[in-house]
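Retro notes - structure team

What went well: the batch runner handled both jobs without manual restarts.
What didn't: labels got mixed up in the shared folder, which is why I'm recording both outputs here explicitly, each with its sequence directly above its tokens.

Job 1
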Amino acid sequence: MPIEKSQVVLFHYSVSDEQGNVVESSRGGEPNAYLHGHGGIIRGLEEALDGREAGDTFSVTVTPDKAYGPRKADAVQRVPVKHLMGAKRWKPGMIAQVKTEQGPRHVSVVKVGLKFADVDTNHPMAGKTLTFDVEIIKVRAADPEEISHGHAHGPGGHH
């Protein structure tokens, strides 16, 4: 069954930066599950998965414009340290989560004071060209509830 819009795709992946360092991988855990054609993964990876089938393995290099976008120089903001979630003590370079009007967001800590921290709101992989090594495990039809929710359910998905 070729991958097309509104199908659930289960896949393993590893992603490497421009220097070939693996920065994230699903191998050794549950495969990632997403609803194809509904914006649940970066555009460049979704385009590369289109039309492929279970059992396919491939590599694709995705430029920032189809991944996490370019880095924005004006993306540093000052926030109260008490709003940073994920650790008790913060140091520059750590990734924190903050609640925003658009929901939770990951930020990189740039500088920490007693009451305030400067955080970079760029996605940690913004501005990077990424290479994905992918193995498609399973492709199945989505059920009506998954389509109405806009995401896959079950192992590797939501709920």
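Job 2
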Amino acid sequence: MHVFGLTGGISSGKSTVTRMLRELGAEVLDADVLAREVVEPGTPGLAAIAERFPGVVGPDGRLDRAKLGARVFGNDEERAALNAITHPLVREAFLEKVLALEARGVTRVVYDVPLLVESGMHAWMEGTAVVWVPRDVQKARLMARDGLDAAAAEARLASQLPLDDKRAVATWVIDNSGDLTSTREQVESVWRAMLARG
């Protein structure tokens, strides 16, 4: 099994690239989806979070993400406690999905992880694709998408590792600042390179 990483930044267009990869036949596992699955009602993950963070499970038995977010935002200790619960569960879920795909004869998986570089996970991937746009384009798209003013957009961007830093460790860079045709050509090229590995 060959595992490749895919990452980007807010408003870089990673979901567009993910969709294109899937259209080309790639199996893409999304870390955000796995992170939601491991805290569904009835899971050990949700039970552990409810115990560590009382009051974050709503009356419907589901995780109240806004409440939990308010507890961990800007508090490194609380965020570390949450990560200590969720990260091992997400890793386990990822491995289970990879084994299931392998059993079906799939030989390549793309793992879409927002914090791939920050977490150091890119180091054990066979290759990492970074969806990149210039910072001014990223900021303009973020302002347009979320209706933010320049200061709010800057604050959101400042909370993430800059795309240029991610680009520095990339195996492949997908420049998503042009039109969709240009992006698709780059995605096709990256997927061919992934298929050629091993």
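One thing worth noting from job 2: The two ends are 9 Å apart (CA to CA).
We'll revisit the folder naming next retro.
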